Amino acid sequence: MLKYLKQKAKRKLKSVNRPLIFKQPSEYVVQSMFFTWLYYKHPNIWDVTFSIPNGAVLKSKWEAIKLLKSGLKPGVFDVFVSLPNKYYHGLYLEFKVNKNTLTPNQIKFSGSVQPMGYACYIVHSIDEAEKVLEGYINDRA
Hints:
alpha+beta; 6 helices; 47% helix
């Protein structure tokens, strides 16, 4: 048993010497961090902000059909802030990480709602999301 524990300790020491590799957080993590920040920084805006789970993992083809029939729209951005400012009726945020880009459906959606008076932004980090929202809030009058 002692021999086994010594070998295990040796393996742990070897793993400590490896360089640390930090991965970019997923879109889910960045969006969750945004909602946490929003809850503490602007609780009144948190009350009128919600996510739109279009990228949900579906268990079956039937589930996908059911969601589409009940109003699921491919391409709708991840988050909606239902708060007007002096230029827009509301704010849509799409979270992207790494080199992810908008899908054709997201481009179509953005092109449809912007002329109707909604702001649309693509954000790649929690810092960028915070800056966009703070800028949007500062344009309230």
